[in-house]
Amino acid sequence: QVANILLNGVKYESELNGSGETSEQPLSMKLLCSTVCQMPKALRNLCINHFLGWLSFEGMLLFYTDFMGEVVFQGNPKAPHNSDEYQKYNAGVTMGCWGMCIYAFSAAFYSAALEKLEERFSTRTLYFVAYLAFGLGTGLATLSRNIYVVLSLCATYGILFATLCTLPYSLLCDYYQSREVSPGPGRGEGLLRRPLTLCPPQFVGSQAEGTRRGMGVDISLLSCQYFLAQILVALAMGPLTAAVGSASGAMYFASLVSFLGCLFSSLCVTYESPATEELPPTEEQRPLLPRA
User: Fold this and answer.
1) What is the pLDDT of residues 14-29, one digit of tens each?
2) Cα separation of 198 and 234, whole Å?
3) Is the separation of the CB atoms in 86 and 79 below 8 Å?
4) What's the rounded Cα separation, in Å, for the pair 146 and 199?
5) In contact, 255 and 53? CB cutoff 8 Å
6) At residue 83, does pLDDT exceed 70?
7) Spatial distance between the Cα atoms of 251 and 21, rounded to a whole number of angstroms
8) Averaged over 221-241, what is the pLDDT?
């Protein structure tokens, strides 16, 4: 989707330059900052939702093996190396690595099935289920001490990871449209089923006159939420786990943020091209909270 739209825009720009027309003003730091600060509301809500998803996921990922060693196996990493507590911690870390293996396999399988699921369920439903499954998985793992239950819940982590790597960018593609693009058959969600023609890709929700948002910048803004989440996790998780006394604080944090993202994705994220005049979004595609 992204490659087709970007190549479509490159062909359009080359045609403009060949005909002697000026496509748009050259890129500058001022223009770049203005593009970042004046994000359309639909893109801003999508970035916030993406940030919440990565924040919850990174909080779990960075402390999962410590959680298995300290909480599930009741080990102590600061104990003497020849003590039983230290051996329990090592066994828990090893078991946590197997849990990460289960998460990786579940992400691979869910990624393969996600395109088929998009044909049966709406994007809002898939978003909601991914955040809800991860919130329940991390929350129940914190409450349980059964090794098999904790390991089986790792499958829910792959669902959120596959969702974060696909659906936000699919929605961003839907936010871009051109006047010559006609929706193909099907539900109309995603551009995989829409024929692309030689015309300029434009962000529908942008109201700035005489400007056109670049899709490369918007993809970067969406991807930056991953690194912002890592920075916040690195700053906040140390004091949080110290206050709680174990790595279970990181799992509680991941579960809470995931449920928050679950609500935000249902109420605030736009699931169809915003501000379209010809085809207003249906009830399933527009955000549940009214716009200001």
Assistant:
1) 444 444 444 455 556 6
2) 45
3) yes
4) 57
5) no
6) yes
7) 56
8) 89
CA-angle at 127, arms to 269 and 52, nearest 5°: 65
3-state secondary structure 24-82: CCCCCHHHHHHHHHCCCHHHHHHHHHHHHHHHHHHHHHCCHHHHHHHHHCCCCCCCCCC
Task: Identify the pLDDT of residue 149.
Answer: 92
Burial class (CB in 10 A: 0-12, 13-18, 19+), 111: middle
Residue 99 near residue 150, CB atoms below 8 Å: yes
**Kind plus residue range of the DSSP H or E element containing 123:** helix 123-143
> Please, what's the largest Cα pairwise distance for the chain?
78
Residue 216: partners with Cβ closer than 8 Å, 6 or more residues away: 6
How many CB atoms neighbour CB 135 within 10 A? 22
pLDDT single digits (tens) 1-15: 555 555 554 444 444
Task: Say how many residues make up the chain.
Answer: 292
- pLDDT above 60 for 190: no
SS3 188: coil
Beta strands in the chain (DSSP E): 176-177, 202-203
- Bridge partners of 177, per DSSP, are 202
The pLDDT of 35-57, averaged and rounded, is 87
CB atoms near residue 102 (< 10 Å) = 16
Distance in angstroms (rounded) separating the CA atoms of residues 203 and 206: 6
Band (pLDDT 50/70/90 cuts) for residue 269 is: confident
Distance CA 193, CA 49 (A): 25
Alpha carbons within 13 A on the beta-carbon side of 230: 5
Please check the confidence at residue 84 and state whether its pLDDT lies above 70. Answer: yes
